[in-house]
Amino acid sequence: MLSDAIKNAFNKKNNRGWDKWPHLYVFIDLHDVIIPGTYTRNNDGRLLYPYAEEVLCRMSANKKFCLVLWTSSHKDSINDILAWLGSYGISFDYVNENPEVKSTDLLNVEKKPYFDLIFEDKAGFVGETDWKVIKDTLEELNEW
């Protein structure tokens, strides 16, 4: 399912051309997606899930991707988590928004930001296993 979603997102972008929006917009939740939920304000004892570091580093470095940290973390904790992820070479373009895609006469993104993919545990993402699926799928698509 996740592999199909990734393939479909790339197919849509390739079939429509990359020039309308130059990126594949990927919204990525923090807790239980990048790190196991620690249920502490400062994410004490945080660890990256297997393959998350490799995939996120490669996505961060690839201009085809625009990464958005999609989190309900307390605003005081977000800068700390961004710095921590940055120490691994993982960077996000935005937090909880996609200002690159504006509303049009056919698209209203005032309250629901536009994304091509969302990695969210509440949408079925499994941090323990899905990063490997993403890695394998992007390798299969020659997107590394």
Describe the structure.
The chain has a 4-stranded parallel β-sheet with strand order 3-2-1-4, covered by helices on one side. It contains 4 helices and 4 strands. The chain has helices spanning 2-16, 52-61, 75-86, 130-140; strands at residues 24-28, 65-69, 94-95, 117-119. It starts with a helix and ends with a helix. Strand 2, helix 3 (75-86) and strand 3 form a beta-alpha-beta unit. With 144 residues, it is of the alpha/beta class. It is globular. It has one domain (2-140): HAD superfamily/HAD-like (Rossmann fold).
Q: If you compute it from the alpha carbons, what radius of gyration comes out, rounded to the nearest whole angstrom? A: 15 Å
Q: What is the total tally of β strands?
A: 4
Order of helices and strands: HEHEHEEH
Please count the helical segments: 4
**Could you tell me how far the N terminus lies from the C terminus, measured between alpha carbons in angstroms?**
21 Å
Shape designation: globular
The first-level CATH class is given as: Alpha Beta
Estimate the helix proportion, in percent: 25-40%
CATH topology heading: Rossmann fold
How many separate structural domains?
1
Mean of all residue-level pLDDT scores: 93
- What's the arrangement of strands in the largest beta sheet? 3-2-1-4
Spans with pLDDT under 50 lasting ≥5 residues?
none
